[in-house]
Amino acid sequence: MKLCNWAEWAGNMGRASRWLVGLVCLLGWVAGAQEQGQRRVQVKSVRWWSLGDVTRIAVEVSGDFTFRQERLSSPERVYFDILNAINRVGGRKIVENFSIHDGVVRQLRVGQNRIDVVRVVIELEGDCEVSASRLANPERLVVEVRARGRRERAKAQVSAAIQPSSSGPLKEGPAAGVAETAAGERVSPSAPIERPQEAPLETAGAVTRSQTATPPVAPVEQVPQPARRTREGEQSLTRALGLKVRRIVIDPGHGGKDTGTIGPTGLQEKDLTLDVAQRLAQLVSDRLGAEVVLTRSADEFVPLERRTEIANNARADLFVSLHVNSSRYRSVNGIETFYLDLTDSEADLEVAARENAGSTRSVHELSELIRKIALSDKLKESREFAGAVQQALYRVVRQVNGQSRNRGVKKAPFVVLIGAEMPSILVELGFITNPQEERLLKNPAYRQRLAEAIFQGIEVYAKSLSHFRTAATTGDE
Questions:
Q1: CATH for 130
Q2: Is 0.85 topped by the overall pTM?
Q3: Which residues span the domain enclosing 422?
């Protein structure tokens, strides 16, 4: 047997070491690539709404993400690259196309541009301004495309429609349509549910906003519907200016260390408000076409002042705070909706004191707080908003619980409403201290009906303002 000398042995060992080091590096690279792939976010769905001279597009993403954008011509288009992402829109299709043709956006494409980049391409109909922002709860990229000159053309059409004819009597312009879905179906309240049986409280999962994609029918351009007067015959500045509802902040009361009211069986207010808020968020997004921001999406503590700060930073048009009532007397029950104003009612001040317990305000701020409460236009619209929600909410509740009392629309100085710069209300969903209402609140079907009723009130209020017909669609998840 021939023995290798020392030099040959050393050379063989050197080659083996290099091979081993290379193998370790390769395995490390593969593991890193797999880990990176696991960390990629998913582009889950695409939705859009046609709002007259504005088309809003929302791209929902599964987690924290970054994006870049660029505008190109021939044809006019803008694209957004969502980085370190995987496309889940359209199932296994490489590229999913959506035909919009609403006078602002021609079409929309979503596809996997590179192995770690999802590209969203928006083809424009003409001269448009494009802005984009990132919103949370859920994570999404929101793009607003605004047609330059469309509003001026609409005004010209209105002016031409009401000009007297030289050969006949005054002609009426085209009638504005009511709000419709993309398929042209009128939005109507769902049928009442049967009286629910007692069921354990179920924690709601994340709000799901993606459904099977169905391109909408191309909308017919219409003259905007003017705002109606309030129920009391008032014409506020909000209505005179033709302002609309496009972004809503929903505030699930309490959370984290602040449990809120606790029922006789241990049911906690913070869990109920979060559940109803998530259900309401989905309804508003799906049916009204408005953007939704939640002040919290998990069991976490958010200070009262921070909640309205979230609404103001989001430039929300409406603020809805959800709570559950309590009383020293088990027989007390019913639904009530508050708006911000001063009051001398001892009972209403007691409710405000309970909900304001977490405030960090000090006494020297009293005069500034009173000034904010006294803002006239916000007060009028908040009162109108509260009336619409209270009416819809009680109509649904009494179908399920004939013993429930309509406690009406009330005013009180809630801290969570004081800082809001938009119409804002606080809804008390029932008395958790009442055995019958606590049993109902435990039932997921009943909580869904509460969310649907609040949505109906929001929709009624939004339609009372100047508004456009809306359309929406979603992609596959």
A1: 2.60.40.3500
A2: no
A3: 237-464
